[in-house]
Amino acid sequence: MAIEDDVLVIGGGLAGVTAALAAAEQSGRVRLVTYKQSTLRHASGLIDVLGYTPDGAGPLVDPFDALEALPEGHPYERVGVEAVREALAFFDEIAGNAYSGSHTDANALVPTHGGTVKPTARYPVSTAAGLASDPQETLLVGFETLPDFEAPLAAAHLEAAGAPFSARGVTLSFPGIARDDAKVTRYAHLLDHDESVATKAGEIGAREALAAAVEPHLENESRVGFPAILGDDRADEVRADLVAALGADVFEIPMGPPSLPGMRLEDLLYRALEDAGVRVTSGVPVIEYETHADDGDRIDHVVVDRNGTEIPYRADQYVLATGGLVGKGVRSERERVFEPIFNCHVSHATDRYDWFVEDVFGDQPYARFGLAPDRDLRPLGADGEPEFSNLRAAGAVLGGYDFAAEKSGAGVSLATGYVAGTRAGEEGER
Amino acid sequence: MADDTEVLVLGGGSTGCGIARDLAMRGLEVTLVERGNLTDGTTGRMHGLLHSGGRYAVSDQASATECIEENEILRDIAGHCVEMTGGLFVQRPEDSNDYFREKLEGCRECGIPARVLSGREARDVEPYLAKDVKRAIEVPDGAVDPFRLCVANAIDAENHGARVETHAEVVDLLRDGDDIYGVKVRHESGPGKHMHAAAAGTEEITADYVVNATGAWAGQIGAMADLEVEVRPSKGVMTIMNVRQVDTVINRCRPKGDADIVVPHETTAILGTTDEEVSDPDDYPEDGWEVDQMIDTLSELVPILEEARTIRSFWGVRPLYEPPGTGTQDPTDITRDFFLLDHDDRDGVTGMSSIVGGKFTTYRAMAEEISDHVCEKLGVSASCATADEPLPGSENIETLEAGMDDFGLRSPIARRSKQRLGSRASEVLETDAANPVICQCEGVTRAEICDAISQSGSDLNAVRIRTRASMGNCQGGFCCQTMANELHPEYDEETVRAALDELFQERWKGERHALWGEQLSQAMLNYALHATTMNRDRDPANAGESNSLEYAAFDGGRSTTEPRADGGR
Questions:
Q1: pTM of the full predicted structure?
Q2: E-only strand ranges, B321-471
Q3: Cross-chain residue pair A117–B535, CB shorter than 8 Å
Q4: What is the DSSP letter of A181?
Q5: Confidence band for B398, pLDDT divided at 50, 70 and 90
Q6: Alpha-carbon span A350 to A95, nearest angstrom
Q7: Which site among A100, A102, A133, A249 would you substitute to test the B interface, given the most B Cβ atoms closer than 10 Å to its Cβ?
Q8: In A, residues 204-243, which contact B (CB 8 Å cutoff)?
C-alpha cells in the first residue's frame, strides 16, 4: 500500500524545505523526499533577493522597487511582490537570530572571498559585522593552508572596489592544523571543540591560540574578518570567544564549496522541518509517477527507489523543487534539455550552439533553462496549459531568470517555495 | 651595427622550441619570439599521441621509420613527458582483412614492433572495446604531454643562453633589398616574463639568420616580405573525456578516415580527429556536428564513449604543405613530411628559411635538420646533441620511483607531481612553507604553481600548460581563483584580476563545444560560484575610475540603522 500524505515535496534544498514548511502551516501531513545532498553546501549561505535587474542595472539599494518592473514570466513576476515580502518574513521567523538584515528593505553589501562586494538581503549573523556598507577599519586574516582566501589580495581588492574603509590583510599559519590540505570542516571542528593545540606558550585551546596568533597583527582596526571556518555547531560561541580575546568585532567571509555557512543554513532548515512535524525521507530518488486512473492530468502517486525496492508515495498535492542544472532537477543531453521526473516541458533552442554565448559572463541562455509556470506555479506544457492539476514547482527548477547574474537565487527559492507550499497546503488539506 | 642575435626563431611551438634548444646547445646565440604562449598554435592543440609509426606504416614508410626512431629517442630524453601506453590498431568486422595484413607487414618493414591479438586478447587489454572487435595489432604508441615537452625545450634553450619572448607578435620582417635581417615585434605587455597591465611596445630584433617556424602561420610571415609560402592549414577537432575509458591508444585499422583514434592522456582520454582544409588558421568554423560525429564514430570501437562525460573540445590546425604542382585535393592525402624552404635558393632572398609540414613526434629530427642547415649558412661546424642530452626534468628519471611519501604530500598527489616534474621534483617540492593542493582535479600543489609563475610571470595560461592546473573535470571553476591568488603579492591586485579573468574566459571557450550533460551542470556551477558567490561578473572594481558606488545607501547593519518594528515589511 502506498504511503499517503496531503503534500509531498520532492527536493531538499532551500525551495523544497520552504515549501514543506509553508505547506505544514496549512495542512496535516507533509512529507519531503530528497535524493542527494542539497546544493546548499555549494552556496554562500547568503539570502539574495535581487542585486541586479535582468538588464544588469545595480547593485540595487532597494530590491523591492525593481521587483515591480520584472518581465512577464520571471518567477518573481509570477508570484508577485507581496508574496516575496511574505516569504522573507517567513524565512526571518525560521532563521530567528541566525540571520540579519530584516531591519531594512535595503540590500547589504557583503565582502566576498574574492575580495569584491555583493548585494544581498539577508546574511548570516556571523557575517553581520563585516558589511562593506559599514565603514569600520578592517583587518582580514587568511591562512597559508587555505589557498582559497588570500587576505592581503582581498583587502587590496576591496579598496579597488571603492569600499569606504581601509582594509589590510595578513596571512598566518593556523594553530593546530598540521596537514597542508585539511578540510574546512577540520578547522571548524577544532574551534567547535576548542581542542588543545601546541603553541610556543604551551598547550592551549584552539580559540585562544587563534586569537593569540592574530592579536600582534591587530593595529587600529575595530573588526577582523576570517574565511568562513569559525565553527559549525557552536559558531556563535567561537565568535564570541574571539571577540572577547581580540577586543574587536569578528566576522566571516562567505567561501566557495564546501561552504560552512551553507551547511549551517541546511542544519537550521532541517531542524525547522523536524519542529514542524514534516516527515523527511532522504537518500532516495523519485524515479517515476502514475497519473490518476480517471484523470490523466492528476498525479496519483510517485515511485521512489529505496535500495532497489520501488515504493509508491501518494499525496494529494505535489511540489517539485529538485533544483536546476546544478542540482540535476534540469538535465541535458546532446540534443535536449529536460526535467527528468515528470518530463515537464523545458523550452530551449534545438541547436545546442545556441545554448551559450561567447563571453563567460554574458547573457547565457543555459542559465535560464527551466520550467515555465503559471501564477499558481503549476508548470506549463508547450501548449501553455498546466502539465498536471496537482503539481507545482519552486526554486531553481523554474526557468526564465538568471539567478547568478541577478543575485536572486535564494530569494526566488524562498518566494516560490513559500507560494507553492502554501497553495499546496491549502488544497491538500482534507 | 651589431646584430642583436645570431639566429632568430619565429614560433614557440614544438618545432621552434626544438630548433632554439638545438642551436643554443651548439653554442649559437638564439632568440625565439612567439605571438602568444608557448604551444599556442598547433602544438597545444594536438591529441597527445607519440606515434609508433604504425599509422604511416602503409601509406608513408619513410615517415613511419622516422617515427619509431624518434619515439625511442623521446622515451630516453623526455621520459617525464611520455607515458608508454602501447597502442592497438583495431579491426572491426566491416574493416578489410587485406589492409590489416598490409598494416602488419608495413610495421615489420619499418622496424616497428608489432604483434597480432585476437578479439578476445584485445578485450583483455582493453575491456571497453566493442564486443565484435575482430582482432588488433599491438604497437608501441604512447602518450606525450606536448606542453611539458615544448616548455622543457624552451627552458633548456634558456639554460644554454637563449632569449625566449612570448606574447611578442611579429608585425613586420625587416628586409633590406634581397636580404632579411630581422623582425619587428609588438610586445603585448613589455618584454621579459609576461606581465598583465605592463606597458606594451614594439622592438626591432636583428639577426644573422631568421628561421620561420610558425607552421600554419608561415604563409602570413612570408607575406610580410612578399614571399609566397603556400601552407595549407587543415583543421581537426579533438574532444576530451573526463576519465580514461582506455589505457592504451586505440586506432581504427582502416586506410583513412575521420574520428579514428582515442589517446589516454593523464587523467583523461582524447578523441580525434577530423581533417578539413581551411583558408585562415586563425578563423575557421568550429562546428558542433564534428564533435557529435567523432563521438558517434568512435563509439563503434569503444561503446561507452556514447554515454561518457566530455569536458571540452578544441580544434587545431595542421601546417600541411606539399611542393607546388602536386595538386592533392583531400588534405588526408597530403604528406606529413616536412619541408625546408630556403628562400635564398627558392626566391633569391637571403637570410631566412621557412619550415612547413611535419608532425609532432618527429619535431626533434626536424629541428636537427634545420639546425644543420642554419649552421651551414652561418659557417658554424658544431654538431647536434639533442638526441643524447635529456631535457630538464628527465635527467635521472629513475629517482622518480623512489619513495611515495616524500615532500609530505599524499601519495597520489606526490606521484602525479613527481611525474610532471620528473627529476626537478626535489628542487620544486622541497619547501618549508605550507604546500596545499591548489587544483584538486589534477592534484597540483602550490609549490608547482609558484615554480611555474617564476618561469612565466602573471600569465596563468602559461602556468596552466606547465602544471595542468585547471585542466580537469571542473575546468578551472574551483581553482582559477586560487591559482590567481598565488600571483599575489608579487603582482598587484589589478594584475591578478586581469590574469584571473583571462584564464577563466579561456577555460570557458573550450568547454562550450561539449556543453551538455554533466559538463553543462558543471558550467552552471562554475558560473554560479564566480557570479553568485563572488560577484565577479558585476565586480565594482572593474568599473575603474568611474566607480561611484554609494556604499552609505546600503544596509550598514543594525549598529547604524535603528531596527524597524515591522521587521522590514
A1: 0.91
A2: 338-342, 352-357, 437-439, 444-445
A3: yes
A4: T
A5: low
A6: 43
A7: A133
A8: none
